[in-house]
Amino acid sequence: MSLALSSSWNAFRAKSASEMLFEIQKLGFKEIELSFNLTAEMCAGVKKAIEASGLKVRSLHNYCPIPEGLTVEEALPDCYSMSSLDEDERGRALKFTLKTIETAADFQAQAVVLHCGRVEIADKTRNLIRLYEGGHKDSLEFKELRELIIRERKESLGRHLDQTLKSLDTLNAAAKEKGIRLGVETRYYFREIPSLQEIGLILNEFKGSQIGYWHDAGHAEVMERLGFYNHLEILELYKDSMIGIHLHDLTGCLDHKAPGQGDLNFTKIKPYLNKNCLKVMEAHQPAGAEDIKKGKALLEKVFDGLI
């Protein structure tokens, strides 16, 4: 299993699927994750061009292709929430996730990365980040805001978590039929599902199923920097259920940088990975081709023997 690159790096600016794939292949990658910003036309183009590129599609990030009726800019992974109390919205989340699972099977991919919804409260994670970036992480204001965020989420969680579990039950059945794993991903905004503890709840609820854990190194590091939990704690808890990992760097709480462009210590992650875990670099613009190339070399050196 080698290192894959997420097409989130160049999908927005590529004029065609073949151009997108060629640029990734030219940087030395043999594997790819299809990102959440691909239209149905682009996915069809990838299907036609993938064999000539020599790349293998290992994973897809929900929603892929983007939901019908939405623009690329609108079609974020959280555009429809599977935890919504509005059954129409939850139904759309299921419909388009099922389409992603079908698309993954068409590409003979192994996994789909899922965002599992959110608690419908005003999100204050950005407010906390502003205090952190301003050098106030030890202030009373920072600590009180963090406690407020935790309390508000806990008070409103119940029915939203129930909706997530109900949605995952439907998706798990479809994934089993198609032979696709579903990776429940670490989240960036604290109101999102799952929290540290909820990952365990989901894994226990669906033990022995298609559902596993997808670690996002950047998101977990942000959670540590904001004081919600320790990065290595989540790895220790769920390493045996990890089916994949997103690898990207960050400075402060600004993530999705190419590895080596920030201050994340990737070495600390290595003991928690195994060869079968899907490893995806998920760097975004403005990272350039040279940044991606250097990031690839860094990760291959750090994770020697695993990718």
Report on this model:
By secondary structure, this protein is an alpha/beta fold. It has one domain (4-302): TIM Barrel. It contains ten helices and ten strands. It has helices at 17-26, 40-53, 87-106, 125-133, 140-156, 158-178, 196-205, 217-225, 231-238, 289-302; strands at 4-6, 31-34, 56-61, 111-114, 181-185, 211-216, 242-247, 249-251, 254-257, 278-281. It has an eight-stranded parallel β-barrel, surrounded by five helices. Strands 8-9 form a two-stranded antiparallel ribbon. Helix 1 links the parallel strand 1 and strand 2. Helix 3 (87-106) packs parallel to helix 6 (158-178) and helix 4 packs antiparallel against helix 5 (140-156). The longest helix has 21 residues, at 158-178. The protein is globular and about 55 Å long. It starts with a strand and ends in a 5-residue tail after the last helix. 46% of the residues are buried. The model has no long low-confidence stretch (mean pLDDT 97).
Query: Would you tell me which CATH topology applies?
Result: TIM Barrel
Instruction: Please indicate the count of domains.
Output: 1
Shape: globular
Adjacency order of strands in the biggest sheet? 1-2-3-4-5-6-7-10
CATH superfamily: Divalent-metal-dependent TIM barrel enzymes
As an assembly, this protein is: single chain
Structural class by SSE content: alpha/beta
CATH architecture term? Alpha-Beta Barrel
CATH top-level class: Alpha Beta
**In DSSP terms, counting alpha (H) and pi (I) runs of 4 or more, how many helices?**
10
Main sheet?
8 strands, parallel, barrel
Rg over C-alpha atoms, rounded to the nearest angstrom: 19 Å
Question: Whole-number average pLDDT?
Answer: 97
Q: Would you list the SSEs in sequence order as H and E? A: EHEHEHEHHHEHEHHEEEEH
β-strand amount: 5-15%
Low-confidence stretches: none
Q: What is the total tally of β strands? A: 10
In whole angstroms, the N-to-C terminal distance is 6 Å
